[in-house]
Task: inverse folding
């Protein structure tokens, strides 16, 4: 195995460690994971089309990635600036705002995908 391939595997294992750490310690990340699991189960139940699966998968990935970045920003600030500071507040509030925007976007996608399916069922 070449050095480059080995570095890719090591890099992937570091990334996987990050996801495991977030799952272990971050309640919000766990809630997003459980929601993603519920949405995927609903997708299987409703036998979604490929386009609808694409919308759902992109929305889920978007929320999880933004939540991971928000967690990284929070941890970095707690490490670099553990004391209370107005700049720290603005930075954390902005990162939390990004999570809210991603979650609201995903909620709209979820409604657009599942409302017609539910409508057809009843
Ligand atoms: N060092 C700080 N200085 C000023 N305000 C802060 C500071 N740390 C946090 N805050 C304020 O408290 C809010 C919550 O911060 P916190 O770090 O607890 O994140 P959280 O959203 O509760 O996430 P988690 O539950 O994952 O820790 C921030 O959005 C910010 O308004």
Result:
């Amino acid at each position: 195995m070449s050095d480059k391939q080995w570095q890719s595997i090591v890099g992937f294992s570091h990334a996987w460690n990050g996801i495991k750490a977030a799952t272990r310690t971050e309640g919000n990340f766990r809630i997003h994971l459980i929601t993603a699991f519920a949405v995927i189960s609903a997708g299987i139940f409703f036998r979604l089309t490929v386009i609808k699966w694409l919308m759902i998968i992109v929305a889920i990935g978007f929320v999880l990635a933004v939540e991971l970045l928000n967690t990284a920003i929070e941890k970095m600030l707690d490490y670099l600036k553990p004391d209370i500071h107005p700049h720290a507040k603005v930075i954390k509030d902005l990162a939390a705002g990004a999570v809210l925007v991603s979650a609201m976007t995903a909620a709209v996608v979820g409604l657009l995908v599942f409302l017609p399916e539910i409508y057809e069922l009843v």
